[in-house]
């Protein structure tokens, strides 16, 4: 058993309280390799932002659970070496079973998500409550989910979304004892969040996706005032990356994300955590493709992963400063 406290990590409780009071959201950036971790830590130290390092079950299999634990501990030490001891949370993203959540808690995670959103309401309550009861013993915080996001990721997929039902949230939070609640108000996983036919075009001919359902968020906030809300599927899919990828051999089609203004607005509400994975993937892929197109003889991974890491860091700084408002909060 490894306690996250020994690793220098923190759970989400205090950070969410500060985010709620301060009207910003803490970034939850997914990672599975060293360059991503370096970019996240450097960006958050330089912008003085708290951060949630997020690991999916697929990422955990990819990177190895033991290595991950040392990487998270390394992140804490790296931040100090860069000059600022920012609060760092190690969080399981989309845990799908009690056993997985328990294993992560036992291996040093300070926060876990149990995603029972595909189950019936009663099964979701029962599973989430079981995870909360285990996590409580170790002061690990738990994120639950109500409502289903559309979109596809490796191990997270749903054809259609079901918006969160505001009438269920109070009962769910009360019965399960979760510390935060992920909701579905129109965000979606992956780089193809909307079909072009769902969008309208603005005066410049740019596709504008359907707006998030802030009315549902408002209803939820009325039912559970001051309770931390989480938004998944919150990449904005920067079109400059899509263009770089496609003009250097890529074939991304109809890649559309959540407009940054909507995320900025959400961050000022009870939304305390905003999940971003796909934008990081796009930034890295754009740079790697660009390097290979310009220098096809290059075969030193540092020569393409280095620029990818620099781009990722710039992207994350932009997120904390201009989108989530979490910069200068440490
Ligand atoms: O929400 C899902 C995350 O983006 C993780 O994706 O399962 O491909 O690691 P992954
Ligand atoms: P994106 O695919 O929009 O980056 O969402 C990531 C996410 O929700 C991770 O849980
Ligand atoms: Zn997610």
Tally the helices: 13
Give the CATH architecture: Alpha-Beta Barrel
User: What proportion of the residues form beta strands (DSSP E)?
Assistant: 15-25%
Structurally, the number of domains stands at 1
How would you describe this protein?
It is a single chain. The chain has one domain: Aldolase class I (TIM Barrel, Alpha-Beta Barrel). The protein contains 13 helices and 13 strands. By secondary structure, it is an alpha/beta fold. α3 (34-46) packs parallel to α13, α6 runs parallel beside α7 (121-136) and α12 packs antiparallel against α13 (301-323). It has helices spanning 4-7, 13-22, 34-46, 57-63, 65-82, 98-106, 121-136, 166-176, 214-223, 239-247, 260-267, 278-294, 301-323; strands spanning 26-30, 51-56, 88-95, 111-114, 141-146, 150-152, 157-158, 180-183, 188-189, 200-201, 207-208, 229-231, 271-276. It is 47% helix and 16% strand. α7 (121-136) links the parallel β4 (111-114) and β5 (141-146). The structure holds glyceraldehyde-3-phosphate, 1,3-dihydroxyacetonephosphate and zinc ion (ZN). Residues 94, 156, 189, 232-233, 275 line the site of zinc ion.
Sum up the structure in keywords.
330 residues; alpha/beta; TIM Barrel; eight-stranded parallel β-barrel; three-stranded mixed sheet; 13 strands; 47% helix; binds glyceraldehyde-3-phosphate; binds 1,3-dihydroxyacetonephosphate; binds zinc ion
């Amino acid at each position: 058993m490894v306690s996250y406290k020994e690793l220098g990590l923190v759970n989400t409780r205090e950070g969410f309280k500060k985010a709620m009071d301060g009207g910003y959201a803490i970034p939850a950036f997914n990672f599975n390799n060293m360059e991503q971790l370096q970019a996240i830590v450097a960006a958050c130290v330089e912008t003085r932002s708290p951060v949630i390092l997020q690991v999916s079950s697929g990422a955990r299999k990819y990177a190895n659970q033991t290595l991950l634990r040392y990487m998270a501990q390394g992140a804490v030490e790296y931040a100090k070496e860069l000059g600022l001891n920012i609060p760092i949370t190690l969080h399981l993203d989309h845990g799908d079973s009690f056993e997985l959540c328990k294993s992560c808690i036992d291996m040093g995670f300070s926060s876990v998500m149990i995603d029972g959103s595909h189950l019936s309401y009663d099964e979701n309550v029962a599973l989430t409550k079981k995870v909360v009861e285990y996590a409580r013993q170790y002061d690990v915080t738990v994120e639950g989910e109500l409502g289903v996001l559309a979109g596809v990721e490796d191990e997270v997929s749903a054809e259609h979304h079901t918006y969160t039902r505001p009438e269920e949230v109070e009962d769910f939070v009360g019965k399960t004892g979760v510390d935060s609640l992920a909701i579905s108000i129109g965000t979606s996983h992956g780089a193809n969040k909307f079909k072009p036919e769902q969008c309208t075009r603005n005066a410049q001919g740019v596709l504008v996706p359907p707006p998030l359902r802030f009315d549902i968020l408002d209803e939820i906030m009325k039912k559970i005032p001051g309770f931390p809300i989480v938004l998944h599927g919150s990449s904005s899919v920067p079109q400059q990356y899509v263009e770089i990828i496609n003009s250097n051999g890529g074939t991304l089609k109809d890649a559309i994300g959540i407009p940054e203004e909507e995320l900025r607005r959400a961050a000022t509400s009870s939304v305390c955590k905003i999940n971003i994975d796909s934008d990081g993937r796009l930034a890295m892929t754009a740079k790697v493709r660009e390097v290979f197109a310009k220098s096809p003889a290059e075969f030193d991974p540092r020569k393409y992963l280095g620029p990818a890491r620099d781009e990722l860091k710039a992207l994350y700084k932009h997120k904390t400063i201009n989108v989530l408002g979490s910069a200068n909060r440490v």
